[in-house]
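INFO batch 0412 | record 1 of 1 | parsing
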Amino acid sequence: MATETTKAHIDAFEYRKKVRRTLYISGLALVNAIIVGFIAKGLVLLIALFTQLSFFGRFSFHEVSPSENSLGYWIVLIPSLGGLIVGIMARFGSPAIRGHGIPEALEKIAKGESKIHPLITILKPLSAAVSIGTGGPFGAEGPIISTGGALGSFCGQTLHITAQERKVLLAAGATAGMTAIFGTPFAAILLAIELLLFEFSSRSFIPVMIACVTGACMHFLLFEVTPTFPMPEIGQASTGAIVAYSIIGLIIGFASVIVTKAIYIVEDLFERLPIHWMWWPALGGIAVGAIGIFAPDTLGVGYQNITHSLSGQLSISLLVSLCFWKFISWAIALGSGTSGGTLAPLLTIGSSLGCLLGMLGQYYFPEVNIMLPLAALVGMAALFAGAARALLTSIVFAMETTMQESTLLPLIAGCVASYLVSFIFMKTTIMTEKIHRRGIRLPDSYYPDLLETQSIRDIMVLENKTPLVSGALTIGNVKALFQENRAAYAHNVFIVVDDITQEKIGVISKEALFRPTSDDANPVQSLIRHKLPSLYSDNSLQLAVEFILKTGQDTLSIEDRASRKFLGVVSSRDILHVFEQRLKEENNKEKHIYMSAKARSVLRNGVNLLRKKS
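INFO prediction complete | emitting tokens
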């Protein structure tokens, strides 16, 4: 009776446990998001402070662009000095602060149980503030995403939670950081699903969603409620214009391939230098400063450059400068291993290139009515979609940062075209190439959890195929039964029942029965080591796997929930067969049209009649 009571309440217990854990992790994610919001504000203030100190010699937290400086050729030294400081911090602090941080987060999720060193929470924003404040061509979003993820991971390491829950906290912290900077909660949720979690379930979706909403509230509280990238009001695009935007996205898809490969080519070149990597950011800073002499708009965060591109009113020369020289400066800086991000440079380059392509379209095809602001927006989102392979995130991000709902269809057209090119010509992305080289593989598709979606009744071996044998029989008796009727023992297991009560007391395998050390004179129940675990037929395969792992038994007894009648057994081999079936469904190619027997007969007769006439 105790066993039946336990089984009767097991589903409810597991569900309540899942709900409690989800609420607990959601609460932690909310608290972390609030902290990340303040860290985001602090990072922005630090960047402004270092910019003021480096380029203007003022102690001020007022945001200013480094392009307004009047240092002349001395500007070459400032990014180099910032790179040196970052190199020292990485060498004696933590090497994980190098780069934009997302590949490192992905690596920890894939192989490190989502455990990020707590020191990253402090060093990453500080190093990024130094790098960007001294002219590094990055944005604040990459470092704050990395910092938020590190904070979530640190929180998860100090509490008694699972690796899966720690991964959720990491993703929640990272996306809360992105939302705190840009005010884009929905895009951040999609970013977590496409780049960090690789799943879509309530246990991950709810905490991440709560963290993103909290991050958005922190953005509105600490920053502003206006669009991050304001642009002129956009009307509905015509069919011809949508085709043009898709062509723009297609071209930018090739640009995303070039950008991604160039970043890692530069990184490989730095790897060949005969000096310690601590000095590489300083060398990269020299190139950044040199480019900044004749292209000062490439220095620093440059969010205003994105806004100007989206206005559609920049000159061709400035667009070319932002498109080409920003890319060169960013590729060298990021390849050198300094601390910075990828999103803002991608947005800057993409918006500039999209605007340039829009100008070409207006010149050669004026009747299409291409809108330059929309062309810039499509270019911005398409480069992000192609380089990061985050299709949904890029579309929603562009809409949320501009608050232009009418741009949805052109964005879909352009981003899908770019994504398609990236998918064809790149095996990895700008986010995953680094860890791919280290032999770490990330999933590239989403599958429903087969163990959760299928019940035991779908795969169990029925009672008439799993013979019952009395525990009073000897091993020799059962061997003789097997020899007489092999067909009845196809599943190679035997359910042993008590000779008096007929209660199932265990299961034995054919391997155990025919083991050379087995004495034929002993009762067959002597081969049983543990009582046979039992579940109901409507339980999930996930629960069956958990029971198999906990009990150490390869086979489970299955009963009907209502009648408590024995129905059959399920083994680990049966569960593996579920995955075998999925592989067959994916790989087997066949023609199959459903048709009744009568319809097939009519069709066959018609074909034969045509053959006779011909």
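INFO post-check: The first strand starts at residue 461 and ends at 462.
INFO record closed
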